[in-house]
Structure formats: C-alpha cells, structure tokens
Amino acid sequence: MIALPETLCYLNGEYTRLCDAKVSVLDRGFIFGDGVYEAIPVYGGRLFRFSEHIARLGRSLAKLRIPNPMDEARWLATARRLVQDHPAEVQVVYIQVTRGVAMRDHVVPAEPVPTVFMMTNELKQASAEARHQGVACITARDFRWERGDIKSTSLLGSVLARMVSADQGATETIMFRDGWLTEASSSNVWVVKEGALLGPPKSEHLLEGIRYELLRELCEECGIAYNLRPLAEAEVLGADEVLLSSATKEVLPVTRIDGAEVGHGALRGKPGPVYARLYEAYQNAKKLQSV
C-alpha cells in the first residue's frame, strides 16, 4: 500500500490531512469520472495566473451543468491556506469538482451537491538537461472523445495516449485528428515556422491551455508573430521548432519526433531561438502574474 502524505487538503468545507481524506464510493467522480479539475502552478508561495485558471474551471463546470461551489475570492483563500501549509517553494495546486454523491444512474441528479477537493504537491519542473537538449515526442492518432475543451477528470484517453510515448521513453504523445494537429496527451503543442509561433485554433477537440493567451502576450512582448490556424501533420514534422506548453512544463522544446530530429541546418535537433526568447519571457511573467 502506498503511504499517503500528511500534507493539508480541503474536502467539502473542511481541512484535513491528505492521508485521512475520504469520499463516498457512490461519488459520480469515482463512478463516472463526472467532474472537472484544474492544476495551478505556485512559485514562491504565489499562484500563477490564478484568475485565468478559475475562469476556465468555471467554463468546464458550466459545460457539464455542475454548479460552481465557490466564487473566486473563496477559491483563492482556500488555495492560499493549502500553499502556506506545504513546505515546497514550487508547488501545483490541484482542484477537483465532481457532481457529487448519488445512486448510480446515467441520468444526472436534478439538484447535485458537488464534491469539492483541493490539494497541493511539490511541482516537479523540467530538468536543466531537458531545457538544454530538448525532449523527444511520439506521434499518434487522436483517438480520444470529441470534447477536449472540457478539462474533465475522465482522462483515460489521455492516459492511454501518454502510454504510447512512455513505452518508448519519450516525454509526450503529439496527436493528430484526420491529419491535423490537436494537442499532446497533457500539453498544448506549438510550431515555429520562419520565426512565427503557430498553434491549432481553439475548438472542441483540444483544451484551451492557459498558456494560449499567455504565449500570445509573450509573443507580443518579444516581437514574435503569433497565429492560430489548422496545422497539418507534415507542417509539424517539418517545423523549424516544436514546443510544448502546460502548467507543469511551462514551455519546453521538442527536438526529436518519432526518432527524427526537429529543425533545419545548424539548429537541427537543438532548442531554437524562439523557444529561448519565450522561456526567458515566461520566467519574468511568473514574477509579475502571480497572486
């Protein structure tokens, strides 16, 4: 049996030690995966782009017709208490809201009482080696459901997708639907072509990562062209640079895809200049956009 940590967590209005927290086996999050979640990075005790994360949580809840149990101020106060109790300098706050407890039935209850859970863990950041050398990815067909825009706790599709790359010692699985880029198993994917940062347009097939807007802002700050448009698989494989972004990866260079090196000329198989500029700007943003 795995020994659970004794750090503080929040469950349905009470603070308790994580090792003591319990939910009902009839919780719809357990039975159906009927819930949503967020993961918010914390740097030096301050939550990064907190309002944007809570706004996305609200959008996911609304799409599932689960009432939002807290306003932003209460979400922030609860998260701050957990962060203050944890010793790590760099953390990630995890929020999960399910439709709550009910007898098993595919029809949702008329007046659900959501189960609300929050915890924080130390955030494992990308290694210096990964940033210096870049990471490897594997490609796969996007076989997940059609509502990737909902940050659902029903993550089996993403788990299976991540197994594809994990089995080959790679960092991520980059997915394509009918030959067009969607996202990776737990990251957004970006392409650099002729100095411009390109990403797939927002749609129901992919999650609008918080870094969508952040990278747009950083590109504007750095004088880098930014455009969202459909990206064919050939464009990704032939890109000058490929990047991953997520709460835990921040922005990370991909230098090998399916065993082939990314890029051209002297920079082939190496992190590129657009990544370097965006990563530096990202570090500055962490100091300015945290609460």
From TrEMBL:
Lineage per the UniProt record: Bacteria, Pseudomonadati, Pseudomonadota, Betaproteobacteria, Burkholderiales
Entries under Pfam families matching the protein: Aminotran_4
Keywords in alphabetical order: Aminotransferase, Transferase
Nucleus in keyword set: no
Family to which this protein belongs: Belongs to the class-IV pyridoxal-phosphate-dependent aminotransferase family.
Record's signal peptide: none
Protein's name according to its UniProt entry: D-amino acid aminotransferase
Any GO molecular function: transaminase activity
Species this chain originates from: Aquincola tertiaricarbonis
Gene3D superfamilies hit by this protein: 3.30.470.10, D-amino Acid Aminotransferase, subunit A, domain 2 (3.20.10.10)
